[in-house]
Specification:
Number of helices: 1
Helix content: 25-40%
Strand order of the largest sheet: 1-2-3
Structural class: alpha+beta
């Protein structure tokens, strides 16, 4: 299962024309956290979002 997620992530990154980082300012379900990340992967044909967080 983890390997398929890794492969899907790699496919999205390789297909992207642009990758942008962004932050969720309010309403984030995992606050409080020590760090979090969010990325938007865009191409002409598709878009994907990766959001993650950790409280250590």
């Amino acid at each position: 299962m983890l390997k398929s997620r890794e492969n899907e992530g790699r496919r999205i990154v390789e297909a992207a024309d642009t990758i942008e980082a962004f932050r969720l300012e309010t309403g984030h379900p995992a606050y409080p956290v020590f760090w979090d990340f969010a990325y938007l992967f865009q191409s002409d044909a598709s878009a994907g979002i990766l959001i993650g967080s950790s409280s250590d």
